[in-house]
Amino acid sequence: MFWQLWSEFLLEWNLTRRYWFDTLAGLLASVLFFYSMVLGLENLTPEGLASLGLDLGPLLLVFAAFNLVVGTFQSIAYSVQSEAALGTLEHLGLARGGLLRQLLLRALVRGLQGITTSALVLLPLALLLGVRLAPAPWWPLSLLLLYLAALGFALGMGALALHFKRVEGFFTIVQFLFLPYFFSLVRFAPWMTPLPFAPGTQLLKLALTGEGAFPGLLLLAFVQALLFLGAGLFAMAWVYAAVRRRGLLGRY
Amino acid sequence: MRLLVQNVHKRFGKLEALKGVSLELGAGEILGLLGPNGAGKTTLIKVVLGLLLPDAGEVVLEEGGARRRPQGHEFGVLLEGSRNLYVNLSLLVNALYFGGIRGLPPKEVRPRFEAWLERFGLKDRLHAPLASLSRGMQQKAALALALALKPRFLLLDEPTLGLDPVSRREFEGILLELKKEGWGILLTSHDLEVVERVSDRVAFLHRGEVRRQGPTRALLRDWAGEGYRVRLAEPKAEALLQALGPGWSAEGPEVLFFLGPWEALREALGTLPVEVLEVSRGTPSLEALFLHLFGEARPSPGAQPRTV
Question: In this predicted complex, what is the ipTM?
Answer without folding.
Answer: 0.84
